[in-house]
Structure formats: C-alpha cells, structure tokens
Design brief:
By secondary structure, the protein is mostly helical. It has a domain at 86-143. 44% of the residues lie in helices and 2% in strands. Strands 1-2 form a two-stranded antiparallel sheet. It is elongated. Residues 161-165 have low confidence and may be disordered.
C-alpha cells in the first residue's frame, strides 16, 4: 500500500488474508515462465538486485509502485480493447466467472478470503445473463405441467412415424 508516496507493507486484514491460492495449470505455467525471466533479470542486475521477496518486481527486484502498476494495467486494458476497468475489478470478475462455471459459493468465499459467504455473494458477484437464463430454465423444469395430447385430429404427432405412403406405421 502507498502511504504519503511511500510503499508500506502491513499484515493482512484477517487470518484469511494469509492463505494458499489454488491456480489452474495455465496460470502456473505463466508464473513459471515469469520466474524464469525474473531469474535472468536477477543475473543481469547482479549486485544492483534488490531482494524484495516479491514475485512481481521492477527490473532490479524492487517493489513496483502501485500507481505505476495501475498505469501499466490501464494501458494494457486499453490496448486489449477492454472497457475502462480497475485492477481490483479483476477480483470481482474472477468471483463472477467462478460462480458462472458452477463453483460452489463456499469455495469462492475461500478463494477470496472472505469471513462470510454473505460478503462474497452480495459484494463480489454479479449474475451473468447466461447464468440467469440457465437458472430460469432449471426452475421451469421443476414446475409440474399437464401433458398435452398431441394426437388431435389434423395435427402431426412427432412421436409417430409415417411410411412412404403417408400412413402412420
């Protein structure tokens, strides 16, 4: 966190802030490639390398200033043709996508490090149109319906087959 132009490190707001985060295979691969590039940068920097203990750093290992990171993210988002979004919006998006993928709300709560599932549900999720449609269809399937007879005179019964001469078989 930046306070008065200085970067300040503090402990997480809660015990849940200090946790292991599960990653998918592609993300792990991207992080491994990043670490390889970072090792090369460390070798290149030599004695100038600052061992900040951070995964994402400046080319010499030091902290990345939050304002600089935000500006870089904004440039990348514009270049990708994305609407204006904040870096923090990725957290909201991750929760929404996880729920749309069918991930249980309790798992999403743990993923975000929230103390209550209510906070996760109320603050960090949105209902995607596809999810809302699927929910409507699922609810409709539970509503008992009277079976309609399709064998009215003059109507076609799709469950009956007809022969070449047009007569029911």
């Amino acid at each position: 966190m930046a306070v008065g132009g200085e970067i300040e490190e503090s402990t997480p707001k809660s015990d849940a802030g200090d946790r292991v985060v599960a990653l998918d295979r592609d993300s792990v691969g991207a992080l491994k490639r990043h670490l390889k590039r970072q090792r090369k940068a460390r070798e290149k920097a030599g004695a100038a390398w600052v061992d900040s203990g951070r995964l994402f750093t400046q080319p010499t290992g030091g902290w990345i200033e939050p304002d600089r990171l935000t500006a870089r993210f904004d440039r990348l988002a514009r270049r990708a043709g994305l609407p204006p979004i904040r870096l923090h919006d990725l957290r909201h998006g991750a929760a929404t996508i996880a729920l749309a993928a069918g991930v249980d709300r309790k798992v999403v709560q743990e993923m975000l490090g929230h103390a209550s599932i209510g906070l996760t549900s109320d603050t960090y999720t949105s209902v995607l149109p596809e999810v809302a449609h699927d929910a409507a269809e699922a609810a409709a399937r539970l509503v008992p319906r009277q079976k309609r007879s399709r064998a009215h005179p003059g109507s076609h019964d799709p469950n009956r087959s007809t022969g070449i001469d047009g007569r029911a078989s």
